[in-house]
Fold this sequence. Notes:
Layout: E1 3-7, E2 13-17, H1 25-44, H2 71-75, H3 87-123, H4 145-154, H5 161-166, H6 170-185, H7 187-190, H8 194-207, H9 209-213, H10 217-259, H11 267-308
Antiparallel strand pairs: 1-2
Helix pairs in contact: 3-4, 4-6, 6-8, 6-10
Amino acid sequence: GEILASASSDRAIRIWRRTDEPIFLEDERETRMDDMFEKSLLDDYDGPSKGAAGGGTTPQDLLPKSVVFTEQEQATPESTIAVKRTLETVRGGEQLMEALQLADSELGKKQEMAAALAALLATSSGANVDHLQYKPSLLLLGLQPHEYVLRSLKRIRNSDLDSALLLLSFDQSVSLLSYCVLFLQTESISLPYTELVTRTVLLCIRNYQAQFISASHDHRLLIFKLSQLLRSRMEQVRKLYGSNQAAIQIWMQEILDQQNWESKPSFFRSALAGVQVENMQRDRMVTSGGNLGNLNAKTKQKKKRAKKD
């Protein structure tokens, strides 16, 4: 059982031998995809002068197929999207699509469980509902669905984000925008990743601008909600950065004043030193006055004792 022979229509006989080396399907799939992609890159970019007329790949070829331009828009000269398809770009886009698919399926399963549980509780109050409890998938790695999508989004480099989002379809872009709403509503996520979420929203809307303009009312409400959340979060981040910048400037000024203390003392520090000297003199006077009061009290007590004797 260690040797397997196979014959095919090309009159070739292949012999397969069993080895002790473990094989992982995911690694083999990635290796095969890398080889195919590198070969396609060599075919597409076979010369520096190859462009759209020479059969090479242009940035417009990387746009989604659902984006349709009119004759007037095609004739109008304008700058195209500067994208470059690389292996990291394709891999990041595919990982993001898989994360969106898994998160959508988990959210759908969660909603189905909640609806079934509500219907069962409405019909019979004492029924056993343990089998209707939602159990998250192990593929989520213990994260919430929107957190798992953010994890995949963060793993894409900033330089590859434009090209990776071009691989998403219109429905996947709408799903990603709905998760961006959850990102912006969660303060622990929105503050550290405001720039990433903002870029993602703008790129998704730019890629499917025509579709969003003629989209349904729900899609327009989604964009309106995103605009409100983005403005509030950007204003919050702007105030936070402004206060931090002012604090850093004050701290820097204090460090410079401390370094120049002996050579060039500032006016405020000179005045503060004078106030400190006056306080020390006042404390000494109060202390000396208290000592005199104690001596007078002691002499009076001695006189009273002498009169009694």
